[in-house]
Amino acid sequence: MFSGSIVAMVTPFKDGKVDWESLEGLVEFHIKNGTHGIVPCGTTGESATLNHKEHNEVVKAVIKAVKKRVPVIAGTGSNSTEEAIELTRAAEADGADGALLISPYYNRPMQEGIYQHYKKVAAAVGIPLIVYNIPSRTGSKIEPETLARLSEIKNIAGVKEATGSVDQAIDVLRLCKDRFAVYSGEDSLTFSLMALGGKGVVSTVANIIPKEMSELTQACLKGDWEKGRKLQFKLIPLIRAVFIETNPIPIKTALSLMGKCRGDLRLPLTPMSEPNLKKLKEALTAFGLI
Questions:
Q1: Which of the chain's termini has less CB crowding within 10 Å, N or C?
Q2: What CATH number is given to the structural domain containing 141?
Q3: Are 119 and 130 in contact (CB under 8 A)?
Q4: Over the stretch 59-85, which tens digit does the pLDDT of each residue have?
């Protein structure tokens, strides 16, 4: 299964269109710096503002640029089960190694509805699926007992845990055991979840520090807890800075300041406020990134 630092990669834009040249450049940046997997078209990739054609083209372009060097886990979630199936089938057909699917948002299904949603998507494809549990975005939490049920389905392989609760992660690990991989969905909790048995992180901050996040996860996977702990502490100020406003506003701004791509966002996301931009620049400077 997938493990280590898996980046939730931004989607660069230029003049309202996807910036394909910068997209390829970001892929190379990650592979050269040890990223273990790439998620195109996740929340950080502004999937909510991509139309279906753009979504499929971005996934296809990332797969092509990666050239099988690391796994590509396409973001294919939706609050419509049929739409999620359509996006996941397209990603599978294009050669994605797996898919990451956010729990249905806004319509706030009951636990049985969440279970049936993932079960139906899993039955429609053959690639491994990772469940994405982020109540702050979706309005509902996937309970550990529901994840335990999902872990019994052959190609539902793990969960990106972004509840912010270590207790939640403990219960998922306890109930699912080795049937299910748990990935931190919170950069600041990477060490904590991996110390409990997690397999890695689906990371936002890895967009700008792929090498350091790779080193952190590798230290944890090898049981070098002292090194992992020190790296986690070192990264905390930068992690906090890239979440000072709604993701992916700060991380995309940071990439722009580093010269990796333009900072263009699609509405309803807007440029950073000046006070927060100043704080972000200070954090990037302190880390030696600009």
A1: N
A2: 3.20.20.70
A3: no
A4: 999 999 999 999 999 999 999 999 999
